[in-house]
Specification:
Length: about 230
């Protein structure tokens, strides 16, 4: 790796600080280690707390973020998330992170995080990134696109809920780390949600919405849509 992993981690942690309580509610105790949903007696908005007397150091630990993700898939990227589902000690802390690996010309397709802003740090390679604003108040105006080419050491922020993407424009692999302002930021990959839902959205609805012929929608709905975490 071209940049020291410890240096990356230090930058990422520092970058997360302003977002620590931007989305999730503040904790009411030192920690609230999450109980696995499969053993929870009830479902709540978030995660049930583990008995503090049974909490161990491993509840705050996640190994292996130095290992590359497998990018042998249709989009050529792999997200390795570290949120409350992988690291239960993140429960109520309002932060998470992810490693994103890109094959040459791989893409993290247009998507949103409904519960978090994202701050991206490029470690290797060159990424073309961007986000699109929400619908403007003036119906005569278009949604605005903000884009930037990022190089190792560059940082870019994606505001909460806005559609954004990252694309490796180089012929070598790329690597980035993302900090997010929620223990469980969620992700909605636009194409997957629109054309790959189960059950599928009525194609007449999509044909009208996209102003295309129904056979175009039929073709898109018949494709295999690869899910990105």
């Amino acid at each position: 790796m071209k940049m020291a992993f410890g240096f990356l981690a230090a930058i990422l942690v520092a970058s997360l600080s302003p977002f620590a309580y931007a989305s999730d509610p503040s904790p009411l105790q030192d920690f609230c280690v999450a109980v696995n949903d499969s053993v929870a007696a009830v479902f709540v908005n978030g995660k049930i707390c583990k008995n503090p007397n049974m909490v161990v150091a491993e509840d705050f630990f996640f190994p292996g973020l130095n290992k590359p993700g497998n990018t042998s898939n249709p989009v050529g990227s792999m997200v390795t998330p570290v949120n409350v589902n992988q690291l239960p000690g993140l429960n109520t802390l309002g932060i998470s992170l992810a490693r994103i690996d890109f094959a040459p010309y791989g893409i993290n397709p247009p998507h949103t995080h409904p519960r978090a802003s994202e701050i991206l740090l490029v470690a290797e390679g060159t990424l073309y990134v961007g986000f699109v604003t929400s619908n403007p108040a003036n119906p005569n105006m278009k949604n605005k696109l903000f884009t930037k080419y990022l190089y190792p050491g560059d940082v870019f922020v994606f505001p909460q809920g806005l559609i954004h993407f990252q694309f490796n424009v180089g012929n070598t692999a790329s690597l980035a780390f993302a900090g997010l302002s929620s223990q469980n930021p969620g992700v909605i990959t636009i194409a997957n949600a629109v054309f790959g839902s189960n059950p599928p959205i009525n194609p007449d609805v999509l044909a009208k919405a996209f102003q295309v012929e129904k056979n175009v929608i039929d073709y898109l709905q018949a494709q295999f849509w690869w899910n990105i975490n």
